Amino acid sequence: MCGGSQGLSPPRKNLATRFFERRIMVKLTFYYKQSCWLCDTAEELLNGFKEKYDIKVNMVAIDSDDELYEMYRFDIPVFEFKDGSYLKGRIRKKDFIKKLEENFESV
After folding, report:
1. Residue 91 near residue 45 (C-beta atoms within 8 A)
2. Is 10 within a domain?
3. pTM score, whole prediction
């Protein structure tokens, strides 16, 4: 049967489409340190998505707390998501998008 669409499932909607159809929010904590170029790069990645999506960020400077500094000093930058998962170090865009998809919630 030419030209028919019977039996075909509709195309899967991507993250951006789902965000615009209904209000979606992602909550995360960003652990960083001043004068850290990897942290600056991760923040630029985050800011690029904050413009498009409703991402609520808790920014935490690890150098303001000795315990946090000891915990994260070799891992920064660190994104901690609502589900308890992390991205750390050199954060790739595709990994960040995947974590956003896994942690979005409707509001």
Report:
1. yes
2. no
3. 0.75
